[in-house]
Structure formats: C-alpha cells, structure tokens
What does this fold into?
Amino acid sequence: MKIMTLSVSIALLTTSVVARDLNVDGTVCMMNRSIDRIIVLTDGGPRVRIALGRPVPIRFNAHDYDRNDLRPGDRVHVVAQRGTAGLLARQVDVTMRVGDALVDSIFRTHRTVVGRFGVREGKTEFFSLRMPEMHSIRVDAKAAYGPTGRVWVSSLKPGDLLEVRGAWATKDLLKASSIDVITDREPSFCRTAARRGEMSADTQAREEGDRRFLNKMED
It folds into this structure.
C-alpha cells in the first residue's frame, strides 16, 4: 500500500509540473542585445514577455540553433513556465526564419546585409559583423552614414543588430555606405497589433514597460 501511495504521489507531482507548462506560438517582435529576453506577439493576439536563460535550448528543424541568428519577425514555438517576473522559457523552437533570404549575403549576392556587431579592430573604423550560420565578414565603415549622420564604430555596441549597405571590396570585406542600428526596431505589424484599441497613454506605458523588461529593469 505504501508503494502504491508513493507511486500515486509521484504521478500527481509529475502531472502538476507538466500542467504549469504553457505553449506559446507567435512572432518575435523585439529582443535585447544579449538575446536572453524576447517579446512575442502570440497567434491568439496578446503580446507576452519571455525570459530566455542561457541554458534554454533553441532549435530549428530539430537541430541546435544559435540564438545570435534570431531576428524580429521569426516565428517561434515556446514552452514556458510562469515565474514571479513573468514567463520563463524552457525550450524555444524556431518554426520559420524571416532572415532566410539574408543567408544569400554569405555568398556575396546582396549589397545589403543584416548581422550582429562583433569586434572593432583596434581604434579603426573596421569591425566584424556576425552573419547567419556562424559566418562573419569584415566591414569598412570609414564612409558609413546612418539616419542621423556619420556612423562611428565607437558608438556601436556588442550584439547590436545592424543593417549594412555597401559594395564588396573583396569577398570578405564590405565597404559600407550606410549603417542602420536596428537593435530596437520592431516590425510594423507588431506595432500596429499592439496599438490597436490602445489610448496614447496606454501605448506609452506599455512601450516603457517593454523597454524596462528588455533592459532587465522590470520591477
């Protein structure tokens, strides 16, 4: 009888743990530089904030996926649990990559590429740009401009998501004419869905909350 009671208790405990799992399907709208926090527009409508610990596995087509390759607009399936500060991911599966076409940039067919800022070369205006699939290229930013004027490499931060336009000087060197920092850029459909039915004060409060969450300053 004691053995049966113990077995039943274990089964109930297991059921209780599984019951706390939440399945979230949706589109990544925003993420921070460390890619350990994301905001997802769920297929059901509401936006959710999800923390991704470093040990959390990320998969694509049943293979390990480098979180540096995550992009706003990617479709994901997240298994998460509720924590004191919100949702905590246990597993993330990328179901569709918005950046698939950008993989062509590895073969130098595009003059506009998107990647993450890597390392500045000394005090020069050269830096490495991390591309999809663990590839990197060198960028010459001596003549690069952005939406507000000249872009200096010293102003860029590790992990920044950059859209770089230019011409290939060699197969491994892109001479940039423009650099746009899109780390905090949100797809327009995400913004539209979030603002639907909101008053301006509500929008301002939510957007401030999103920024605080991504910057790990959530109360």
About this structure: Confidence is low (pLDDT under 50) at residues 1-19, 101-107. Residues 145 and 151 are 5 Å apart (CA to CA). The domain at 19-98 is CATH 2.40.50.140 (OB fold (Dihydrolipoamide Acetyltransferase, E2P)).
